Amino acid sequence: MKKLYFLLPFVLLGCKSNPSATADKTSVSDSKAVEIIYQVEQTEVSDFLKYLSSDELEGRETGTRGIEKAAVFLEDFLKKNNVKPYFKTYRDTLTNFKAPAFNIVGVIQGTDPELKKEFVVLSAHYDHIGLLKDKQGDLINNGANDDASGVTAVAQMAKYFTETKSNKRSILVVFFAGEEKGLLGSKSLVQKLEKQNFNLYTQLNIEMIGVPMKRDYLAYITGFDKSNMADKINEYTGKKTIGFLPKEAEYKLFYRSDNYSFYEAFKKPCQSISTFDFENFEFYHHVSDEFKVMDIPHMTSFIQEFLPAITQIATSATEEITMK
Question: What angle do CA 158, 61, 147 make, to 5 degrees?
């Protein structure tokens, strides 16, 4: 997550949210809940996250050899799981970064002749902040929560769609570089997509879902009041999956991740989903943001719970998620 470090000392000392105070911000309906038989494998979640946040990748700073290894890993995963390249290759070169840097972009073609012309974007950033300079001890900012956890979730969602072929709309799978440098990867990509008259329905960007919240909902979305996405996700899952986090609105997190680049370009519902609530994780942009502090059962359950929602988003006859 970009440029949040200056907020944390004040937030961690000063904020205590009351989840019950916002309980009426979303409604839960099981009228369109989708039953999913497919099971997300905890071992696959663990193995994927463990490598992506390993010391070998040296903190995945954009433009370094560490993120190059991550790019190869993600390309191999997409190829193995039958996600096709969106461009000529999986690599989408950033136009706004001085060194060679790449988003990794794949596509899962929709199964409906008409709906496949519309796109759902599932995304997360795979870069992080790299190595500490002039320090002793642990120098590697592994970025397990930020945002290897989100990348892991998107990868498993992509695998789900290729195995079940349950998406009538096309799915654009994007792993962004340059997020920590100022949303550079998403800014670069949307310029290219705009020139193609890219037909975007909605974007779900996954940010920091490695540890659970102690609230009466699973996750929150940024820009809660900008669309009906929260209500629709809850309707599709039949649960209180998404809730309102006051600190998200206070600190304008909607503008701090790669969803904003897409919203700014397309003016469609483009929002980030997270379980980092300023109280449950103390290692933001810290060398201790490592695999060992991630909650793998929680991550697996998170992905599983979202499958009905992303399925309905990818198959509904009309665009039910709309701006307010």
Answer: 40
CA 285, CA 146: separation in Å to the nearest integer?
8
* pLDDT tens for each residue of 116-154: 999 999 999 999 999 998 777 789 999 999 999 999 999
- Distance CA(12)–CA(16), nearest Å, equals 9
| Burial zone of 103 (CB within 10 Å; 0-12 exposed, 13-18 middle, 19+ buried) | buried
Report d(CA 211, CA 216) in Å as an integer: 15
Annotate 260-291 with three-state secondary structure: HHHHHHHCCCEEEEECCCCCCCCCCCCCCCCH
Report the distance separating Cα 8 and Cα 279, nearest Å. Answer: 10
- pLDDT single digits (tens) 246-280: 999 999 999 999 999 999 999 999 999 999 999 99
- Measuring CA to CA, which residue among 219, 90, 214 is closest to residue 150? 219
Q: Token pair 């390993």 is at which residue?
A: 54
DSSP code of residue 82: T
Residue 65 structure tokens: 């050899």
CB neighbours of 94 closer than 8 A, spacing ≥ 6?
62, 101, 102, 103, 177, 178, 184, 185, 188
Gap between the Cα atoms of 179 and 181, Å rounded: 5
